[in-house]
Each structure stands twice: as structure tokens, then as C-alpha cells.
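Comment thread on ticket #2218

A.B. wrote:
> Attaching the input chain for the structure job we discussed in standup.
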Amino acid sequence: MRNILVYLTNILNFNAYSFDIQKNRLEVIASTFDFDFSNASHFAEQAKKNTYSLIKTSDFFTIGILVSPNQLILLIPNFTIFNYVEKDLNLLFILSRLKLLCQLVYEVISNTTAPEDEVYIGGLQSESIEYIDESMYQETLSLNELNIKLLHAILSHDRNQFLFWKSKLLKNKVLISELTNVYSKNTLIEYIALLSNLVINYGYPCQDVYAIKKKIYATIEQSNSDPINIEILNQIICLFFDLLLNETYSSEIEGFQKIKYHIDRNITQSLTLSDIARNLHMPLKELNPLFKSKYNITINQYIRRKKIDISKSLLYATNLSFQDIATFVGFNSQSYFITAFKAIVGQTPSDYRKCNKKQNLV
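C.D. wrote:
> Ran it. Output below, let me know if you need it in another format.
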């Protein structure tokens, strides 16, 4: 079962750890990026109080899943402020389905049905993890959706949509609260990392982005405004929109590589050819011929097969419903998931699960 967790964390770009509460010992299950987790015991002390939890610090966050009284699974997404790794659309998608992710990991590790407990959220230094109130939770999800809308507008070079979603983003209560506390500079650095990664992935010269980042960081460090005025974030977002508006794609990255990279990094989302063309700023009619010339398969066939491969692992390793699995891998509906699964595998998801459960018992 751990092999399946390794497979999933590689897809999601997470580090996964097992923590023995009694022995106070950390074990690495999967590592997709270098990370010093020497303070894992502090996170475990908080996370062991609830079945599912998200523990925040000013630099990163850890997802905790209590799979037994003595074992915690700790997940860290590939995003920290200080080592500049990305906080991309796939991560925002996963956070909006945090409970489902926790239940998935619980079932993969424990081989039992996951509890319906809610996710509790708190800071590392707090004495107890407090359940996030519903209004704030909705604002958090709203912030994620606004980020996605804004990034789509930037990638499609749509100035009107960019201005519209930027305006809404800068009025979001969660964002405003993050820009009016002692960690406001870190919030700006998060956005710089997000936007830098975005423009680099889509062709803007790395050296130019790094030079711009360095100047922005220096400006932030020298700022005497504490908390930082939200207008500074406004200026940073506008700067990156203008960069991408005037971008010239690097000849070093082939078009088919960009398409495959984008699909692989966002496979848990609902992907369409129009979305890919818009996000990569490539002509729609050129996508399939370009991709098929290299991989001998259409883009939609590749997407479906990759989603089905993930689904097969989840059907085997968990008791999650077909709807939950369809949601997790980014199918638009349960019925479409079942149809696509049967077309590729030759069995319905139900038959596949029954067959593999029996083989496992034997």
C-alpha cells in the first residue's frame, strides 16, 4: 500500500512521512524535493489531536492524517517560501479537496474505511487546533478560485479579465488579513514565487525573472511599511501580467514537452484542449498534431489513460466511492468516469475493484 502512496505523492509533488508517536521517530515514505523536517515532532504534537489536520507556520504547512493511535502520516507540498518551489494550480486544486485527500491517504495506509471527520486547521505554536469557521473556510476556497481565475487571465493575456479578477482578489478577506499581520512580507514572497514559476514555465527567460525577483525582494526588505500596503501586491501582479504579455517562448522547450508537462502537473484537474491551448498560449489546432507526432496518441487519450491509471490504484487501495475517485482525478462526472474506465480497462470500476480485492485476499 505504501507504494501506492509513493505513486500518488509523486503525482501531487508532495513529501510523505510516517511518524511513530510512541517512539517519536520520523520515517520518510516518499521524497519529491529536499526538505529539512527535523522539527517534525512539533507538528506531530499538534496533528495527533485530530484525525485530519493542517498545521501552518509562516513558511509552509503540513497535512496530518492520524491513521492509528500511534501512527501519523505527514504530507508537505512542494512549496516553501525560502527555497522557491512552486505553488501551482494543482496544489490549489488539492487544497480545495483537502478532506478527500486526507481520507484517501487514511484508506491507503490503514486499509480501512476513512472516518468522516472534518479537517482541523491551526498554527504550529497554538495550544490546540481550532476548527476553521465556515465563513473563513469559504473565503479560503474563494481565494483559491480567485488565484486560478487570475492565473488563467494572465496566461490568456486577457486584460479585461485580468483587471476584473485582480480587483476581486485584492478585496478577499483572507488575503487582506494575511497582508495586515506580522507575516505580510511572507505573503508577498509567496505570490512572487507563484507568479515567477508561472512565467518561467511558459517561456519567459529564467535569468530575467530571477533578476526581477531579486529587485522585488530587495524592495520588500527595505520597505518600512509594516504591515505592507496591499497596493504593493497589486503592483507585483501587474508587473508579471505585463511580462507574460510581452513574452517570447524559449526555443529550448519543445511544444509537445510543454503540453505533456502541463498535463502531468495538472492531471487531477478537469483538462480540455481549449484550456491547454489557452494556458500554454498555443494555437488550438496545432496541439493534437504536435503531441501525436511525438507520442503517437491524442491529447485526450493521454489524459484519460493517465487519469484511469490513478483511478485503478485508488480502487485497489481504498474504499472511496466512485464519485470521490472521479472528483479526485478530475473527471467531470461519475458517469463519465465509469464510461471512460470501462472503455480503457475493459471492466467497470465496480468489477475491477471486486476482482482485485479478491486477488489480494488470495
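A.B. wrote:
> Thanks. Noting for the ticket: The radius of gyration is 21 Å.
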